[in-house]
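Quick one: structure tokens for this chain, please?
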Amino acid sequence: MTDTRRRVKVYTLNEDRQWDDRGTGHVSSGYVERLKGMSLLVRAESDGSLLLESKINPNTAYQKQQDTLIVWSEAENYDLALSFQEKAGCDEIWEKICQVQGKDPSVDITQDLVDESEEERFDDMSSPGLELPSCELSRLEEIAELVASSLPSPLRREKLALALENEGYIKKLLEIFHVCEDLENIEGLHHLYEIIKGIFLLNRTALFEVMFSEECIMDVIGCLEYDPSLSQSRKHREFLTKTAKFKEVIPISDPELKQKIHQTYRVQYIQDMVLPTPSVFEENMLSTLHSFIFFNKVEIVGMLQEDEKFLTDLFAQLTDEATDEEKRQELVNFLKEFCAFSQTLQPQNRDAFFKTLSNMGILPALEVILGMDDAQVRSAATDIFSYLVEYNPSMVREFVMQEAQQNDDDILLINLIIEHMICDTDPELGGAVQLMGLLRTLVDPENMLATANKTEKTEFLGFFYKHCMHVLTAPLLANTTEEKPSKDDFQTAQLLALILELLTFCVEHHTYHIKNYIINKDILRRVLVLMSSMHAFLALCALRFKRKIIGLKDEFYNRYIMKSFLFEPVVKAFLSNGSRYNLMNSAIIEMFEFIRVEDIKSLTAHVIENYWKALEDVDYVQTFKGLKLRYEQQRERQDNPKLDSMRSILRNHRYRRDARTLEDEEEMWFNTDEDDMEDGEAVVPPSDKSKNDEDIMDPISKFMERKKFKESEEKEVLLKTNLSGRQSPSFKLSFSSGTKANLTSQSSASNLPGSPGSPGSPGSPGSPGSVSKSTSQMAAITTKGGLVGLVDYPDDDDEDDEESIPLSQKAKLESS
């Protein structure tokens, strides 16, 4: 079977309370005669043998966990689990189980009541709680077994948790822990580890409150140091008391807040460092621990936010020049942690949090910090800035635009960010990558607001291109003054790749702002210098930048590319790459293929007229030959606009037969007298009768004749043309025509009607909208044997024109 939705692993719980893998197969449900009911069947995917045949008992408690796990107890001490490869398969089987038991599939457990097998495990089910063994050193093994045996069943976990709460059992266990440590009773300490770990998996907030209290938490951590699977105990308590230091960068006067901070740190440490990584069956059992930490953080943020004196002192010391560097670093680290805690807040509370920080002046403070020399402080300030940008980029944009009215460009916050990105000393540019992401968020029009009075996109992008873009492109312009990059080391290449990535994003999203900047500063020429870099990833970034520009199909960009001959570096890189089949080869071919498929006429003509001799031998793809064919078709249409006009008319009448045309045809048919009809001949207007087959086929014959001799014509053209008249290219190419001459002829031709790349004037012979009178009036093709053609009539506009022109003038038009 190949259906992965029903692919499952079968697990059984062994005597040691560990899950054993019984094999992988495909699960199905169906009626089994032998079991007299609907059953779950799992057949092995290897040989089709039966791995599981289990009747869906109406009273059995089935539990769905983590969307892909179904667990149930088949009999006493025999628990089963199906682990699904896909959630969809788990949902299907769960619906079958719920259908048999008459339950809503939205539940995670099908039975709230205890089943018979569970009743037999407890002596007195009517008692309010479970009777625990007396808390003595000699009975630790018995207690550990009881805790372990209670974990698989939700009901048993509930009873055990109630018993532990009611009898104050945890504090008694921690007293025994001190005795075991004093006696160096390793076996007892190992049992205590299992007991405390099991209590964590009970997932009860009331138990956590006892365990994480000031008097108990260090002893709980001590119990978890003695993991039986480790040869030596861990020293978690020593780390927490001696190594980890609590620093009050600003004195906290509230003792409750201080205690909450200590508790949260220690519980987070237990979760991350002390407790073993939970198995797939234990993850859900620690959800309350996650919630405990989460709500503690919410409380801490709320209490600090309400303490106005605390925040005022914090920002005052941050921006005070008299604050020493070590103190400032601690303040920044605290603020960073404070912002990280805020991520746990609900959206409305987070709004209030960042609004409070904004009112306190967090952005001016960050500007001061980012201007400092300490790299660690700047790094922490960058993290804080990232929280602000991700939360509310509009707030940051508004600040930097207001700031620009008062300060020079050099000290603007956004320019400081760009400078830190450029000056990142990390060889892998980790900080620069983070800052580039923040800049992209700030210049992304998708998250900019538009109101009735102003448009944030217009204002901010105008500001950015005026005050900041020159700072961003400075490394690119400085490194591309020659034909090759002046610096081509790995770190510089990485930085330039990041800048190009952002510029490519701007090309896609900023329309005229980036267009003006690229054309005025000749940015594309500078970028294409990087095509000769020794780093392939940088050359590909440059190519991707150009590909994004071409993808816009904007004639302003196209004219700029043609005028500056900016395909030359691409063709040079393509030829230098040779016959290697790599990403560079594929990317360049894809760019030319895009030009061909999208039929960008101006670029097609430019490429063929200037670079065809260099590309004509490339035959392992048909891209360049296809471009040549496109070019020739353009030339045909230019040289024979009559043929082009006929093609468009035939195409229009073949595919566009609107209701108005049909009505005209019907009216003409009914208005024709029978006497006008002669045997074997269709009556047509006199002007159309004068047309004969030779007139109709004349343009087609000319076209076929031209196609027949195209090779000889091409050779003649090649003999007459010279190499580029602009300047000798840096690589040897035989061009099919002079570059300047062609550019001139193209620009002049662009003013002619019907020229490629120009819309053409209405009514001109070559324009798409024109209709040639010599062809549009053809109503039918007749023979002596009778009517053989369909009658095609032009639209109303053409008929009106026809009526207004005398027949004698029509004949002149047709013969012209």
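The two ends are 74 Å apart (CA to CA).
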